[in-house]
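task queued by scheduler; priority normal; single chain, no ligands, no partner chains; default sampling; output format set to structure tokens
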Amino acid sequence: MKSETISWTGQSVERVEDAALLTGRGRFIDDLGVRPGTLHAAILRSPHAHAEILGIDIATAAAMPGVAAVITGRDLATLTTPMVAGLKVAVENWPMAVERVRYVGEPVAIVVAQDRYLAEDAVDAVEVEYDPLPCVVDTLASLEAGAPVLHDKTGANLVSDRYFRYGDPDAAFGEAAHRVSVSVSYPRNTGAPMETFGVVAEYDPHEDVYDILANFQGPFSIHAVLARCLKVPGNRLRLRMPPDSGGSFGVKQGVAPYAVLLGVAARMTGRPVKWIEDRLEHLGAAVAATNRVTTLKAAVTVQGRITALDWDQVEDCGAYPRAPEPATLYRMHGNMTGAYDIRNLAIRNRVVLTNKAPTGLVRGFGGPQVYYALERLMQRIAVELRLDPLAVIRANLIPAGAFPYRTASGALYDSGDYIKAFDLALAEGRLADLQARRDAARAAGKRYGIGFAAAVEPSVSNMGYITAVLTAAERKKAGPKNGAQATATVSLDPVGSVSVHVASVPQGQGHRTVLAQVVADVFGLPHHDIRIVADLDTGKDAWSIASGNYSSRFAAAVAGTAHLAATRLRDKLGLIAASQVGVDPDQIGFAGGAVFAKGEPGKAMPFARVAALSHWSPALLPAGVDQAIRETAFWTPPELSAPSEDDQVNSSLCHGFIFDMAGVEVDPVSGKVRIDRYVTMHDCGRILHPGMVEGQIRGGFAQALGATLYEELAYGEDGAFLTGTFADYLLPTATETPDIDILHIETPSPFTPLGAKGVGEGNCMSTPVCLANAIADALGVAELDLPLNPARVAALAAAPEPPRPETDRAAVTARPGDRALRGEGQARVAAAPEAVWAMLLDVDTLASIIPGCHGVKQLSDTHFKADVTLGVGPVKGRYKAEIKLSDLVAPQAATLTGSVSGALGTGGGSGRVTLAAGEGGGTLIAYTYEAAVGGKVAAIGGRLLDGAAKAIIGQFFAALARKASPARPGLIARLFRRRA
């Protein structure tokens, strides 16, 4: 009993998903209908990186029309428990701040109202009193004695410190002819999916059941975390995922805390509650890839052969070690020697906390951080030992005959021929031509370099890898955790149609197309006859704690499990068909939509008739066949065992191979990097759909290009978030993304049902360091950290700049991380200077001409308070402002110094205003100002802030011109009369 032909698997058939997605008919979370009466939520977030919450006044917001509830951290704490942290540390990991905020953007309160507009307005009316605390954002500074401690009960920001030894690294270093080292600081970045987080939550008080729809990616180990946090058994938390998700790249596992917040909101209001994250919220407070500081040392022979590696990694997980972190640090634990045959290994892993948003999984998680250090080291070995970098790579690659290959730290590399792939990439990628282009460019005085990178791409994670953060004794006490599991259900309806359901929700990868191909081949059917259901409901569908769409597990695990389920069902159908036509089951074949006896042309039946028989005539089923209606397969590979007593762990099931080379030209003046050619070689096992594999590679390359040249989630020294819009967090577009040459070899995995390995994360690992190596080669530099934006590249290429000359211009004192704004201008007013002076700071006049002013209160002759609402680009908020006068020279000049604070940020500045008689009896007003802003408002981009500042000041003077009247005595005039 088997399929007689393989018609679809391995072909680039048209994607099933595209018709809906390209015509705007995708079913994303915000497209799905909600129940009548559903409320909408908006979240108030902290403008401070570290502060005690002294009080929250919600009275005004709660009384606003349409507001159903205002929920604070203390309300949350009555209904939930802290989320289980990824480490056994004394950290209360609440989804919302309870008594202290620890990063800019941390939720402080939730407003639930009839619509999002009312909720946003009410958020502006919530007043929070903070007591700011010292903060720390630098990874290494968090380790220093005296650094501000984020969580008092931990006593320090270092929450994990583990040492690992494999082989005899000390002896290898002692005998080494050379020691080469690199130190790198890998920055924070994110996946920036097109669709942000979304949650719709309901609570049934009669059943004590939470029903939460979220564009959640998994893994479903988080289901247990959420159930515990919400204080309900797992069977009373129903998680549902929509059919479509607008990208994730790992980031959407970070929706978990918001599932708790919205669940509590639904419980407190007694109605469904919906929340869709905006882009400012996403960039500032969604999970990010960890930033890591790495020092990597190698013991090297004269020929460039590495005999030992010594890793020192300091992982910055932000303000809270949220599960599944520190997964990013340990996912690559078995792969720390990369594609190289290195038997001696030392590792020190430290996890620290800083006043930044918590981190999570981002495409290739752990891989970019590891390979940036490892492949930079390979290039430095070549440079320092004066060797050909390709010779250094070749000398260290794992030989073909060694597979399956066990690494020093425990990974079992399933298959590969790294040297063959390496040689093929050099030949078909036209290395000689690339070298000739480099030589010609350098002869013309240009900066041109070639970079290389080799990487192993792990896929299908072993749940046990994360437990390597614990000692062997701690693991024994906690109980075993290991393995991976995928589930798939194949079912037949009464008319013989085939449906497939998998516990893996796609984020654009094409699950429905590939699954249809795989299952169609099992049954010998056209692929378009197979219906795939890819949404998920934990309340009714088959799933396991390891289910989900993450770690490149779809082709290897999910599609393979669907193949297993379909094969089991097909074998039952074969037994039924054999009994119907009176032949031995081994004679039954499936092809062309029919089930037939091979060699006996008259003994055949339509597939649909055989498939429907269990529904219509179950009494005719042969012995040994209980039903042929549905098969659910759970697949668990035996190769994924728990970490051993000596901390060896096979952290992933499959291991693809990548070798990249790139030629780049660098303009030393502008810092612009032009990619002349990029070649990427992949071994991802058996290829199921070549077109989609190419799409995954190109997508990974584009994302890696952003990480290399553009992207960084930047913070000021005071914790202010600086890259809150796409004006400052730059992403590559199609214009910036060059074409690339993609090459393949196939070494099928012996560990997966279809021989497939993962693909799609690899270039996120290999491309950043490949391009960095090319830039280093072009500029002849030893140290360079990402992102290699034009300013940083130009600085690497240029000679040191002369010191900046001193200036007499008074500067506003800005905190580190604040946005500095400076400007000047003029305005003409049709009134005499004395009249303008008299009214300039009159309380009533100020209230009428300050943009967005709700009132001015005079505290003294020279001190005022105002309540204003200001909008800057996409950010609008209410602020408390203070203004003080100084250096009064009536009626000619005055200095105004002010400060503002509100939920969206803080600011301060000073300005000098001068009045001079103009033509026709009017007044020429000249002004200069300097200001600094911090918090959320500082994240919206320098150009928007500069433009907004000029617009607001322009509005002020335009209103002053309209109000100007020489008959109105003003505050300054009255003040000077008193002094006279």
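post-processing summary
- Residues 554-581 form the longest helix (28 residues).
- The chain is about 25% helix and 30% strand.
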